[in-house]
Amino acid sequence: MLTLKTVAKAQGRLRGRIRRTPLLQAVGTRPQLPVTPWLKLEHLQVTGSFKVRGALNTLLSLSPDERAGGVVTASGGNHGLGVAYAAAQVGVPATVFLPESSPPVAEQKLRALGASVRRHGRVWDDAWIAATAFADERDLPTIHPFDGPTIWAGQATVAAEILEDLPQVELLLVAIGGGGLIGGIARYARLRNPAIRIIGVEPRGAPSMRASLEAGSVVTLPAVQTIAHNLAPRAVSPNTLALAQANVDEVVLVDDNAIYAAMRWLWEEFTLVVEPSGAAALAALLTRAVDLAGVETAVVVLCGSNVDGSTFFQSISNVPGWPTGGG
Fold first, then answer.
1. What letter does residue 304 receive in the DSSP assignment?
2. What is the pLDDT of residue 321?
3. In terms of domains, do 29 and 177 share one?
4. 30 and 59, same domain (yes or no)
5. 202 beta partners
6. 326 in a structural domain
7. Mean pLDDT across the stretch 25-43?
């Protein structure tokens, strides 16, 4: 169960091992927005995303005997990097299964951190099945990308930092892949201030959480199609669905063009390089997909930056104008 105490313990484990990422107020930008958002620059985190928080907290929660033989995971890229970094910190091996959809830059970074990399399946769900079979055969622990109390507590430290720096925050915008980030953030924020609105954002081509919320149970999508590959599991977990049901006010969808436009906006306004998954939450704000009436203080979590330079600039060069339409 996620509590203020478990998040405080996670903060203690992570202190000095990861970065405390800053908040940046987006003043003086175009187009003029109904609210001037604060940006949580989690894309500046070690390994380029928030994922290291949950991965390292989970690994440090294992006993020395449990982790001695190494750990196994499956990832679209960012969680794998977090696990590889955590394993290197602790001095144990890491094996990461990647789906074929993950970019080459993710595999290169994983190997640079010392991880063993295996490719399996078209999407994350396929890679996870292979990873768990591999771990079971060798009696090794797995670290799930978005499910489990130590994962949620690690990701909740993002919210702890936001509320320490900006206690008056009224609205949090958070991207959803498997639901671990928003689950940790939303639960912690609710415990600290029940009045905070928490809005989740998914790609229109991978709405696994919204479909599950509408159905009242986990829905496995027949297929996913989005540039935000780190936000594209075919299904969330029963646990992350329960966290969202209890703590998330709304989930909105954005299309890929809006995500590209948000990436371009961040580059042109702040010279920030953010991956598609990291820009999805901002896309919801820029396209007015979220009702901001009466909101004075909003925070958008920029959750990742793992995209190679050539892909990034090619992507944003094809986006015309500023995002202005509803979504």
1. B
2. 54
3. yes
4. no
5. 253
6. no
7. 90
Same domain, 17 and 103: no
Distance spanning both ends of the chain, measured CA to CA: 34
Q: What does pTM read for this prediction?
A: 0.93
> How many domains are contained in the chain?
2
Give strand pairing partners of 253.
Answer: 202
How far apart are the C-alpha atoms of 262 and 265, rounded to whole Å? 5
Please indicate, yes or no, whether residues 184 and 44 belong to a single structural domain of this protein: yes
Return the CATH number at 307. Answer: 3.40.50.1100
Same domain, 41 and 58: no
Can you tell me whether residue 45 is helix, strand or coil? coil
- What is 156-217 written as a DSSP string? HHHHHHHHHH-TT--EEEEE-SSSHHHHHHHHHHHHH-TT-EEEEEEETT--HHHHHHHHTS
**Which residues sit opposite 98 in a β-bridge?**
119
Q: Name the DSSP class of 320.
A: -
DSSP 3-state percent helix, strand, coil across the chain (nearest 5): 45, 15, 40
User: Tell me: the pLDDT tens digits for 302-314?
Assistant: 999 877 777 777 7
Rounded to whole angstroms, the maximal C-alpha distance in the chain is 56
Which of 100-104, 213-217, 281-285, 294-298 has the least mean pLDDT?
100-104
Q: What is the pLDDT of residues 239-270, one digit of tens each?
A: 999 999 999 999 999 999 999 999 999 999 99
Contacts of 284 (CB under 8 A, 6+ apart): 173, 199, 201, 252, 254, 258, 290, 327
Domain boundary among 105, 138, 171: 138
What percentage of the chain has pLDDT greater than the value 90?
82
Q: Which domain holds residue 69?
A: 51-138
Cα separation of 18 and 314, whole Å?
A: 31
